Amino acid sequence: MPDLLLDVQGLETTFKTPDGVVHAVNGVSFSLQEGETLGVVGESGCGKSVTMLSVLGLIPSPPGKIVAGAANFFGRDLLKMTPSEIRHIRGAQIGMVFQDPMTSLNPVLTIGRQLEEPLTLHLGMTKHQAAARAAELLSMVGIPNAADRLSDYPHQFSGGMRQRVMIAMALACSPQVLIADEPTTALDVTIQAQITDLVKRLRSELGMAIIWITHDLGVVAGLAQRVIVMYGGFIIEEALVSELYAKPSHPYTIGLLGSLPRVDASGKESLTSIEGAPPLLYEKPTHCPFTPRCKWAIDRCWNENPLLETVAPDHRVACWVDVKTGRAR
What we know:
The two termini are 32 Å apart. Strands 6-7-8-3-9-10-12-11 form an eight-stranded mixed beta sheet, with helices on both faces. It contains eleven helices and 14 strands. With 329 residues, it is an alpha/beta fold. The longest helix is centred in the middle third of the chain and has 18 residues, at 189-206. The protein is 31% helix and 26% strand.
């Protein structure tokens, strides 16, 4: 059995705004095994990124606040660490690739300076050693003439190359976990495929575990072993990739898959859309947050929020209705 690297239990994060308190993450629990790739999917605003930023202590406070939960990493709770303690975890043991390669790099510092900083900070390398390792990292992520590019600035790189630099920075200290927050969102489809293939190759070479945050179920199908689906700050379904695509058990997951073009389709099926809008989370939902948009909803859905229940081996879903039969569970 692979070792358990990260175990998050009951995570809750809120944001104080002029209009009220937003309950962005509501009791999220998940785990990550050694060498595993976990996909986290859901539409914008469902809590994917906030969950991972909370785990790494990157939520701005104020307005953000982690109000409950634990995130155990090698037996230590990341949520209880001091800023100084978790700073030694970030980058060194857990690397993160942020969503927008255009704004994630400092425009007034050279690429070399930004790559060398974690190497000197976490690994104690000299400037010469860090420069050599930085060039090696750029070569590893497919940037030609790596040593010569260290003196360039971010504006001299294309969007795809900037994202490669971000991946190189995240991998600089050989972390056990890589968190990739929608790393291909701002890139064209050709570059998206290149970045995905790059991460697959690096995963097999380095043996690291990956959390891949995305709204693109097509990317997850070819990358992850296990998927969690989020909606309204909750995990509403969790399954192995093959199981999720073959037997989706939550109405929201069915809607997401129905909106995805398929290469095996006959051409007669039309893509579906999910009617309505995501919930406003100024109050923590006491009913299933998907109920107003759900065609399978029953009275219980309006009165009680379901917990994740096992419906098959390695497959859990939070729904009061069996979508196969249309009957209450």
